[in-house]
Input
Amino acid sequence: MIKYYKKKSFLQIEECWFDGAITFKDLFSLKVIYHNKNSPSFWGIKETTHTLELDLEQEKEQILANFSKAYRQQIRKAEEEGITVESTSNIEEFVAFFNEFASKKGTYSTSRQRILEKKNYLQMSFAKHQNSVIAAQSFLVDEDKKIIRHYQTANKRFDDSLNKNFVGYANKFLLVTNIMRFKEEGYKIFDFGGYAANTTDPSLLGINNYKLKFGGTVVECKDYYSIPFWLMRKTAKLFGLNGTV
Output
């Protein structure tokens, strides 16, 4: 199980992934459990969610064969173009790159604090071309359950000096290179970071389709919230308050 504490002003939120429960002692705390497929929770508020999972216990050749033909071609193209992938511990560089992308996209930013809060549960990676970062991704790593969750992603697609197809190749190559690395390290499940079931939103449908072309399977999960956290979350959404990831 992944467990860490996130601070918001003077508040402290306990975030867990893949396992855990909201117990009686959590009734007056700020706690959330994401993507739990195992334990019931009787004291929390439950929401059904979905994600897309890739079975990493398949043979490497089978995993690649399940990708769409277009994706396989783009991944080869990235290699031919000289895209390289490297893990990084440079928080400042990752945060700066991610926040530039988030600002242009109009979505959540991140911070050094948010990265450090996740301790060793978070791994970061860059796709580079001629020493320039083209894409960045981070992953939540559950060593006990052998689950990897794709957590953050950013790229240079808003940079007018770069070909958008080239950026897309780099982004996919970064993701696939990490998938294969995690497989080699013995992880069993790669979680693509959520799936919007039954949506009619064109943007979400596009994201769903992007993920499905990697050959994963849609699975149902449960999120559990302590009552104070659920109320805080609803209030923030009501007033359109943005946070950080």
The beta strands are 2-8, 11-17, 31-36, 45-55, 84-88, 122-129, 132-142, 147-155, 189-191, 217-225. The helical segments are 60-66, 69-80, 91-105, 112-117, 164-184, 202-212, 227-238. Residues 2-49+223-238 form one domain. The mean pLDDT is 94.
